[in-house]
Amino acid sequence: MRSGQRQIGWFGGSFDPVHRAHLALAWAALDGLVLDEVRWVVAGRPWQKAGRRMAPAEDRAAMVRLMIEGEGGDPRFVLDDREMKRAGPSYTLDSVREYQRERPDDALWLVLGQDQLDGFTSWHGWEELVERMGLAVAARAQDEVKAPAALLDRPHRLVRLAMPTLQWSSTEARRLAASGADASPVVGDTVAGYIARHRLYSEN
Ligand SMILES: Nc1ncnc2c1ncn2[C@@H]1O[C@H](COP(=O)(O)OP(=O)(O)OP(=O)(O)O)[C@@H](O)[C@H]1O
Ligand SMILES: O=C(O)c1ccc[n+]([C@@H]2O[C@H](COP(=O)([O-])O)[C@@H](O)[C@H]2O)c1
């Protein structure tokens, strides 16, 4: 690591909606890796969820903003909307290449949960991604972090984030909202208020 080099967490997600485990994961990365910033990159068109109805990207981004600027947020959390502005599938590699053209001196860490690490070698250009950035991974359903075999065959940097296993998910938040129940135990009061006011997920 070069001295003075900024350490940046790259936290991509559909955030449909953002929930409390996302916030815990961002904090685990910020504290665990002593990052200067965590960029919350809202996926415009997550191609692996293409068949699914999703809240508009503007609403998903608005909820992320409420989460990172509200109680439990931090000025080092930054909303990155580049994928919302781009046409076509949201490939992380395209965004990372673009960012590294803007800030070539920053060191990047891809922040993700074990479920995404399981499918990581299906990502567009994953081989180049692991050359460009380290992986910072949190356990999810089970209390283990395990790299897929194809990743182990290549040079890569992987750190496990210290974070308790949390069962919260966007799926659970959508299910609660759709049934008219209070989603705040999963997403917090502010995001739950936004979901209710904008009637998101009421027809899921
Ligand atoms: N409870 C959790 N523990 C650890 N990581 C999580 C958790 N929830 C989400 N993540 C991670 O956050 C990132 C963004 O997740 P995403 O926006 O898809 O939320 P999700 O809860 O997984 O959504 P859905 O339930 O709709 O599949 C992914 O890397 C995912 O692994
Ligand atoms: O670049 C890819 O091919 C790719 C494939 C699957 C997922 N991702 C990214 O992984 C992040 C988490 O995705 P998701 O579906 O769990 O919201 C989000 O930023 C996606 O754009 C990226």
TrEMBL record:
Pathway: Cofactor biosynthesis; NAD(+) biosynthesis; deamido-NAD(+) from nicotinate D-ribonucleotide: step 1/1
EC code: 2.7.7.18
Keyword terms of this UniProt record: ATP-binding, NAD, Nucleotide-binding, Nucleotidyltransferase, Pyridine nucleotide biosynthesis, Transferase
UniProt domain Cytidyltransferase-like: residue ranges: 10-175
Keyword Nucleotide-binding: yes
Source domain of life: Bacteria
Protein's GO biological process: NAD+ biosynthetic process
Entry-linked Gene3D superfamilies: HUPs (3.40.50.620)
One GO MF term: ATP binding
Record keyword Transferase present: yes
Catalytic activity: nicotinate beta-D-ribonucleotide + ATP + H(+) = deamido-NAD(+) + diphosphate
Protein purpose: Catalyzes the reversible adenylation of nicotinate mononucleotide (NaMN) to nicotinic acid adenine dinucleotide (NaAD).
Similarity remark: Belongs to the NadD family.
Name of protein: Probable nicotinate-nucleotide adenylyltransferase
